[in-house]
Design brief:
Layout (H helix, E strand, L loop, with lengths): L1 E10 L5 E11 L5 E5 L6 H8 L7 E9 L9 E2 L5 H8 L4 E4 L3 H4 L6 H13 L3 H14 L16 H14 L4 E5 L7 H16 L3 E5 L3 H7 L2 E6 L2 E7 H5 L7 H8 L34 H5 L14
Parallel strand pairs: 3-8, 3-9, 6-7, 7-8
Antiparallel strand pairs: 1-2, 1-4, 4-5, 9-10
The protein binds adenosine-5'-triphosphate and nickel (II) ion (NI).
InterPro entries: AAA+_ATPase, ABC_Ni/Peptide_Import, ABC_transporter-like_ATP-bd, Oligopep_ABC_C, P-loop_NTPase
Protein name: Nickel import system ATP-binding protein NikD
Catalytic activity: Ni(2+)(out) + ATP + H2O = Ni(2+)(in) + ADP + phosphate + H(+)
Length: about 300
């Protein structure tokens, strides 16, 4: 996947514009797992929704998002400009799988998990009726969804079970690109590990995985690279070993995010992120940054050499 200048703006009443994703360039290779991290509201889920054409009508999207399916001779597809029919028949679930952030809201409330999962298996693999039951149970097992809960309706599931049902459905298509938006929220540590290991296997089989997460411990376990997002922009991209180990993050925000972990200094980044409808002229992190100088408040730092900071 190659993103260039990906920008998403929501038009609000009164002419206000919320710039949720701001000029993002990002490449993700086959076989690679990238963790996208950053504070609540920085634009991670909007980025994922943009790639699947799932944004509401007031969203204005620009830039390109080329997604290539390895092993197929066709040219990469720009999913941002693809018509709805292409998105529905070739992209969603097939070229790009999604583990949604709110699984309970994405599952159909009036159908059992079994029926939804079976439909997904049949649609994506053409599994014959006689084999569908076993194939559905295998699909459930990949996300550790218990077989005795398959006949439950979404409202009868706990948050963690709904999460696993959604993950199972997302894995069915073995899509070349998998977007997992906080796939481990509400899971116990052993289930977190089970889920991220399944995502790792997905990448190791030659697919690309983008995992959005607040769980830096899970990110360290699964990711090859880490991208840190702040106020709609990517402020740092680093290989996971150098991000979590030596020399550590280079952007002051990325550094603060990591230091906030209980296993590190347990000190939060001070202050609050800016309003996305009133972004400052210079670096959006400058008001919260201990290293900010006059230049930071006036000049937007360019993204060079893996980070966007005047003082990295
Ligand atoms: N339909 C919408 N209309 C207006 N603003 C929106 C809309 N959807 C999202 N936003 C705004 O876009 C910004 C980014 O939201 P997003 O859901 O991508 O955050 P996130 O990084 O995924 O956060 P979290 O970690 O809490 O899931 C937020 O400020 C949000 O209020
Ligand atoms: Ni989100």
């Amino acid at each position: 996947m190659s993103l260039r200048h990906l920008t998403v703006t929501f038009r609000m009443r009164g002419g206000r514009a919320v710039r949720a994703v701001n000029d993002i360039d990002l490449d993700l290779a086959a076989g690679e797992c990238l963790a996208l991290v950053g504070e609540s509201g920085c634009g991670k889920s909007v980025l994922a929704s943009a790639l699947l054409g799932l944004l509401p009508g007031n969203a204005v999207v620009s830039g390109t998002a080329l997604v290539h399916s390895p092993g197929t001779p066709t040219a990469p597809l720009d999913v941002l400009s693809a018509p709805e029919k292409t998105l529905a028949t070739r992209v969603r679930g097939r070229l790009i799988g999604l583990v949604p952030q709110s699984p309970a809201a994405h599952l159909t409330p009036v159908r059992t998990v079994r029926s939804q999962l079976a439909e997904t298996v049949r649609e994506l693999h053409g599994t014959p009726r006689a084999e569908l039951r076993a194939a559905t149970e295998r699909a459930a097992a990949r996300a550790a969804f218990p077989p005795d809960h398959l006949d439950h309706y979404p409202h009868q599931l706990s948050g963690g079970l709904a999460q696993r049902a959604a993950t199972a459905a997302a894995l069915v298509g073995d899509a070349p690109l998998l977007l997992a938006d906080e796939p481990t929220t509400g899971l116990d540590r052993d289930l977190v590990e089970h889920t991220v290991d399944e995502l790792r296997r997905h990448a190791d089989a030659g697919r690309a995985v983008l995992i959005v997460t607040h769980d830096l411990v899970a990110a360290e376990r699964v990711a090859d690279r880490v991208a840190v997002m702040y106020a709609g922009r990517i402020v740092e991209i680093a290989p996971a070993p150098s991000f979590f180990g030596e020399p550590g993050p280079r952007h002051p925000y990325a550094h603060g995010l990591l230091q906030a972990l209980p296993s590190r200094t347990f000190v939060p980044v001070p202050g609050m992120p800016p309003e996305l409808s009133r972004l400052p002229t210079g670096c959006a992190f400058a008001p919260r940054c201990g290293r900010a100088t006059a230049q930071c408040t006036t000049t937007l730092p360019a993204f060079t050499d893996g980070t966007a900071c005047h003082h990295a």
